[in-house]
Amino acid sequence: MALSIGIVGLPNAGKSTLFNALTKNDVLAANYPFATIEPNVGVVGVPDSRLDKLAEIFGSAKILPATVQFVDIAGIVRGASEGEGMGNAFLSHIRESDAICQVTRVFRDEDVTHVDGKVDPGSDIETISTELILADLQTVEKAVPRLEKESRKDKELVAQLEEARKAQTALESGTGVLNAGLDLALLRDLHLLTAKRFLFVFNCDADELADEALKQKMRDLVAPAEAVFLDAKSEAELVELGDDEEAEAMRAEMLAEMGVEEPGLDALARVGFATLGLQTYLTAGPKEARAWTIKQGATAPEAAGVIHTDFQKGFIKAEIVSFDDLVAAGSMNDAKAAGKVRMEGKDYVMADGDVVEFRFNV
Ligand SMILES: Nc1ncnc2c1ncn2[C@@H]1O[C@H](COP(=O)(O)OP(=O)(O)OP(=O)(O)O)[C@@H](O)[C@H]1O
């Protein structure tokens, strides 16, 4: 289950800078893989220090983190739905994404032009949100006549048609689909952008990152959606440093100077996971230490199914120790001796950071 996040924003908001930082981010640990599928699609390993620890305990040869796929698209301008700027056809590249990350410029550098002549995060968010609503409206306006025709023959489509009509009404009134109280399952085939969850990246300069009052204002703008604050340009520089010890020390120093505890990219991956209601569980052995992505609330057999459908079908039980207990014990055997390793059955609801071995029948 690769989580996919589409990046949107005005031109010059810092999307490509952020995307480049994300996709070159194989320095956080040489083991975190990164692959470019297409020039604008990057798969990024979610940094997870627990994996390093597991690899140490189990002598794992490889570390395989959970992954997030980021899709970068061109900037959207006001009027894109009517063909302004580069239009909005390229929004189709993010129709399949699980979530949308809106990058908003807060940094004030006068050398970087702003399409509207001034830096105003609230107004920029409004512009992008409006264009996404208009893009969805175009999709729905095409779908409704098609569904009207098809539902005459196929009665199962009647419910979809009704819901598409309701979505049209909501979009016409300027409301995104996610919060319009609609049955999203019936609208799934339309891949509407405003049916997705949103998170917001505020691209700040160093002073702004330290300005708690400003950050609170930005949070209030987008609540209940999550806000991540980072300086895309500095993040890109951090990533360029390399991954030797000296670079590591320099990175720590730069982060301290920026007054932040974790690199913004880590925060983005973490918040992206949370926004989608995802969590990870862990497996480890001599071959690899690995993080697997599951929905919060997933049961043990569902978690097993992420590794292989056979694991789910033939699920017997799961041997589970929580990461913290395992680390405290120092080894699997010591954790067992301390009574920290549990046998869980098919109703067990997974917790984040469970270290698991599944027993199954094939
Ligand atoms: N936090 C920041 N502080 C200062 N300058 C920044 C910051 N983030 C990005 N920039 C600069 O802003 C400019 C625009 O950034 P970038 O090209 O990433 O924007 P974009 O959103 O991808 O634009 P487009 O949609 O036109 O491709 C670049 O020169 C970049 O170095």
Would you spell out the secondary-structure blueprint of this structure?
Blueprint: E1 3-8, H1 15-23, E2 34-38, E3 41-45, H2 49-58, E4 62-64, E5 67-72, E6 99-105, H3 121-153, H4 158-172, H5 184-187, E7 197-203, H6 206-209, H7 212-222, E8 226-230, H8 232-240, H9 245-258, H10 264-275, E9 278-284, E10 288-295, H11 300-307, H12 309-313, E11 315-322, H13 323-329, H14 332-337, E12 342-344, E13 354-360
Parallel strand pairs: 1-5, 1-6, 4-10, 6-7, 7-8
Antiparallel strand pairs: 2-3, 3-5, 9-10, 11-12, 11-13
Helix pairs in contact: 1-8, 3-4
Bound molecules: adenosine-5'-triphosphate.
Residues 9, 11-17, 74-75, 107, 109, 112, 203, 205, 231-233 line the site of adenosine-5'-triphosphate (ATP).
Q: How does the overall form come out from the CA principal axes?
A: flat
How much is the average pLDDT? Answer: 88
CATH homologous superfamily placement of the domain at 297-360: Beta-grasp domain
| Number of DSSP strand runs | 13
* Helical coverage, percent range: 40-55%
The description of the largest β-sheet is: 7 strands, mixed
The CATH topology of the domain at 297-360 is: Ubiquitin-like (UB roll)
Radius of gyration: 23 Å
- Name of the CATH architecture of the domain at 297-360: Roll
List keywords for this structure.
single chain, 362 residues, alpha/beta, Ubiquitin-like (UB roll), seven-stranded mixed sheet, three-stranded mixed sheet, 14 helices, 13 strands, flat, binds adenosine-5'-triphosphate, ATP-binding, ATP binding, Ribosome-binding ATPase YchF
